[in-house]
Amino acid sequence: MHSTEPTLPETPEPLLRVNGLTRAFGGRPVVDDVALQIAAGQVTCLLGPSGCGKSTTLRMIAGIESADAGQIWLDGALVQDGPAGLAPERRSIGLMFQDFALFPHLSVAQNVGFGLKGDKAVVASRVGSLLERVNLSGYGEKRPHQLSGGEQQRVALARALAPKPRVMLMDEPFSGLDNRLRDGIRDETIALLRAEGTAVLLVTHEPEEAMRVGDEIALMRAGRIVQQGAPYNVYNAPVDRAAAAFFSDIN
Ligand code: ADP
Ligand code: MG
């Protein structure tokens, strides 16, 4: 008997894959059967109105919030399977929040090197090169309160980059910044992450921001991803009236 193997096109395994991710609080589903895929080096925006479950999704991917059900693979490895998951520090992820969460009593250099282990001189040189990359050479001995909001944001970026994560998870990290500086800081941050080859999952409630920085947009509503695709497609072919209305205030 003859049998021919079917030849399938090779689809590369996405860097981050989420399947069936679900979480309820007090019996109310807040994240409901979420599926997401992020390719290496890509910027994906998780976009949706306040309260739709974006932060909870991000926190489960980070491993700082437990899941009720679902799987998360990072670089092909299963890091979350239902309620069981790897500790956050064992996932190759970096985290940035709106509140930069810098340690006020530590210097900039100590903040950046906080999670780094090993030989002091090696850590110091790595911290130096990280500060250089975010344009903060010479700031190492300062304290966070001596820095502007934009500078603090760059310290948080350097700290998040220190363990060389494959994916940077960002929860509205720019929304606390002064309006005039915000777009510039955001564009610089995303450009730097692109240059590093770090994939990004950026949570935002602003369609304009997602359109500007995303390679992909995952549109979320009431705990579910209702549409995922290139910004142009999501904008021009909204999945329903509510999606169209959500984008309608962009000029
Ligand atoms: P988003 O980031 O899109 O604004 P969140 O993921 O923060 O949404 O929250 C989604 C919903 O889940 C909200 O109604 C919020 O109040 C609720 N929620 C989030 N965390 C908790 C928690 N720890 N306990 C109870 N409810 C929560
Ligand atoms: Mg949120």
Automatic annotation (TrEMBL):
UniProt record, GO biological process: quaternary ammonium group transport
Name of the protein this chain belongs to: Spermidine/putrescine ABC transporter ATPase
Location of this fragment in the whole protein: 1 to 251 of 367
A single Gene Ontology CC term: ATP-binding cassette (ABC) transporter complex
Keywords: ATP-binding, Cell inner membrane, Cell membrane, Ion transport, Iron, Iron transport, Membrane, Nucleotide-binding, Translocase, Transport
Alphabetized GO MF terms: ABC-type ferric iron transporter activity; ATP binding; ATP hydrolysis activity
Domain ABC transporter residue range list: 16-247
